[in-house]
Design brief:
The protein has helices at about 35-40, 75-85, 105-115, 160-165, 175-180, 200-210, 255-270, 275-280, 290-305, 325-340, 355-360; strands at about 5-10, 25-30, 30, 45-55, 65-70, 95-100, 120-130, 135, 140-145, 150, 155-160, 185-190, 220-230, 235-240, 240-245, 245-250, 305-315, 345-350, 365-375. It has about 375 residues and is α/β, with parallel strands linked by helices.
């Protein structure tokens, strides 16, 4: 087994994503973008040392013991130098340098790079260029021959002494291979992987999620049920719509039984507990809160887990007030909040024919079904 060290460069600003914050800390299929690479390296039995280079190491949390943090530099090359300086390894030890924005790393890529170093000074995964390439000169397009062109990915692998010497000069490089290329190094390109696609623009999050989502992915279905009693008041709130009535629903928040049931249905579909786990009634900050906050939070958690709400069906159970006159407004309000087409939102109402607490007009019950589709 070949032992190796790894450096994950995570100091980028991520400006081109338009998020206003670094992309490597954003959620992707239930974990942060950077976590995918950290876990890939830590799962390899040959790993000796793992270094994360970031702008603010003191803010890094959630990683297993043994991960070393170091402050990044002004440029990517400066950050790599900082990472190399923390390593206490022999000169011939392989070092893999990886961009945090490429979450699709796997053991097979690591093994291929380590094997390539047995006969080369450096190695990197690469994909052939299949698209036609053009350049614009003097206002005209010209074709660029694509033969011999490669899309180089990371991690890029080097012997410790090779990359350290190549980066000794205070020069910045496009990538680490460029540094050793200038030294006449022998470089081997191993087959790359589309899953190593770099997250650069906003649409890349969905693309990479589709590449990394477990296959086959199947829809998820969740159900929810909620009950609230009446208390003195002049209206009830259902699906965000105020409906005049001789009483209101009792609850810590706005007691919107319909949206509470739907919130639980979404959380249930992705196995993330229930509304009380995320918004406990004992917490004063949720006093009289708009239940739309709960519903949007559940939708966000589902999205982070790799699922999107495809449709929902809500049933309100009560003798009064009459729901049917307000049903279309309830559908529209729910669809608007969740970004769904109106045709994907169903709202129904029924009674219990005078039976039970709803039949005795003591309160309102609601149940909901949510269908979530994989984000692929």
């Amino acid at each position: 087994m070949i032992g190796f060290a790894a450096i994950i460069v995570a100091g980028g600003k991520g400006a081109r994503t338009g998020l206003g914050r670094p992309k490597q800390w954003e959620p992707l299929l239930g974990q942060r973008v950077i976590d995918w690479s950290v876990k890939a390296f830590l799962s390899h039995p040959g790993l000796i040392s793992l270094v994360l280079v970031a702008d603010a190491p003191e803010t890094l949390t959630g990683f297993p013991p043994g991960v070393t943090y170091v402050q990044g530099g002004e440029t990517r090359t400066d950050s790599v130098r900082a990472g190399l300086a923390t390593l206490a390894i022999s000169d011939d030890t392989p070092v893999l340098i990886h961009d945090a924005a490429r979450p699709g790393l796997n053991t097979q890529i690591i093994d291929a790079l380590l094997a390539a170093l047995s006969e080369s000074d450096a190695a990197a995964p690469a994909l052939d260029v299949s698209d036609a390439l053009k350049t614009r000169k003097n206002g005209h397009l010209e074709t660029v021959p694509r033969e011999g062109l490669h899309r180089v990915q990371t991690p890029q692998a080097f012997r410790y002494s090779t990359i350290r010497a190549a980066l000794a000069a205070h020069v910045s490089f496009v990538d680490d291979l460029e540094a050793v290329e200038a030294q006449g190094a022998r470089v081997t390109l191993v087959p790359g992987d589309p899953k190593l696609h770099k997250i650069t623009y906003p649409e890349d999050f969905d693309l990479v999620a589709r590449l990394l989502a477990p296959f086959p992915s199947t829809p998820r279905v969740g159900t929810g049920f909620d009950v609230h009693a009446f208390e003195p008041g002049d209206h009830v709130t259902l699906c965000g719509v105020k409906i005049p009535h001789t009483a209101k629903l009792k609850g810590h928040s706005d007691a919107d039984a319909a949206w509470h049931a739907l919130t639980d249905a979404i959380l249930g579909a992705v196995a993330l507990g229930d509304i009380g786990d995320h918004f406990p009634p004992s917490d004063p900050q949720w006093k009289d809160a708009d239940s739309g906050l709960f519903l949007k939070h559940a939708q966000k958690l589902a999205s982070e887990a790799g699922y999107m709400l495809a449709s929902c069906d809500i049933t309100v159970i009560c003798e009064a007030p009459k729901v049917k006159p307000h049903r279309e407004a309830m559908r529209a309000r729910t669809a608007d909040l969740l970004g769904l087409p109106l045709s994907a939102v169903s709202v129904k109402a029924t009674t219990t024919e005078g039976l039970g607490f709803t039949g005795r007009r003591e309160g309102i019950a609601a149940e909901a079904v949510a269908v979530l589709s994989p984000k692929v």
